[in-house]
Amino acid sequence: MNRPATARWSLFLFVLPALAIYLAFAVLPLAASIVMSFFDTDNPTRPTFVGLANYFYLFTHPVTSARFWNALLNNIEYFAIHLVVEVPIGLLLAALLTSGVLKRSEGVYRTLLFVPATLSVVIVGFIWRLIINPLWGLVSFPLLGTASTALPTISLMSVWQYVGIPMIFLYSALLAVPDDIVEAARLDGASNWKIFWGIKFPLIAPQFGLIVILTYIWTFNGFDLVFALNGAAPGPNYSTDILGTFFYRTFFGSSGQVANLDLGATVATVIFTMMLVVTAIYFWLVQRRLKQHQI
Fold first, then answer.
1. Which CATH superfamily, name and number, covers 61-294?
2. For residues 122 and 54, what is the distance between their CA atoms, to the nearest angstrom?
3. Domain limits, the chain
């Protein structure tokens, strides 16, 4: 009679360590940042409640607001490049891996294509710096030193590293397509091209929504590759400054900018709010319709 209760307690005890770590290193710092954004903590012993003053300063101060909107636009471009380049390449690679053309070498190619996603960002940044170095690399043009090419170059480096992630999502979805539907289409005389776009692609279409929202979250959390390549300095004329690097300079202080903890917490809260709103809209509109369709 006590087994269900014992099983529940056992499950809770197994989950407790991970839950405690998540609360300590994710939920509590996030909550502290949100609270801090409403205070002036110049005097740590007696913080002053200022309401929305920090947000007003962020959006109205001539220099700070200009840097914020520039970082936001750069982040949108960073996301758009990932979306336009990474997802189609991932689909192409997944289709190639499931086509049967590679036969026994399929596992080898799948592993090689996913390996870059497991590499350290510092290693990736160092390797690409050597490759595109205008003095001894393969490219004579200073891609990272020119405002118009710096951000697209970093974005394509990131695409090269993480293209294996959407590839694996779509590869798994293509493997889940029922073989009997494909065989029936072949018996009706459908070509591989028609089978892919007429049968397989509509069946894996829901995966694209998940890939888009994960790409959005990851790129708007982006920081590591830009920092590994340029440090906290935002590239030529702030051309590679995204929200992550803008937050870092604001909160910790760098490149001649004095640290402002309250304003940094405000920037972090704004970034979190943008991701939360877009993710909520996705789950409310897209996933809700998918569940209704399945029912």
1. MetI-like (1.10.3720.10)
2. 34
3. 3-49, 61-294
Q: Is the whole model's pTM more than 0.70, yes or no?
A: yes
Q: Which amino acid is residue 178, in one-letter code?
A: P
Q: How far apart are CA 165 and CA 149, in angstroms?
A: 25
Contacts with 290 (C-beta within 8 Å, 6 or more apart), sequence order: 206
The dihedral over CA atoms of 208, 212, 215, 216, expressed in degrees to the nearest 10, equals -170
Integer angstrom CA distances of residue 118 from 108, 110, 124:
16, 13, 10
pLDDT mean over 117-129: 91
Reported as a single tens digit per residue, the pLDDT across 81-119 is 999 999 999 999 999 998 888 878 888 989 999 999 999
Both ends of the chain: CA-CA distance in Å?
36
Q: Say whether pLDDT at 65 is over 90.
A: yes
- Quote the CA–CA distance of 257 and 232 in Å, as a whole number: 10
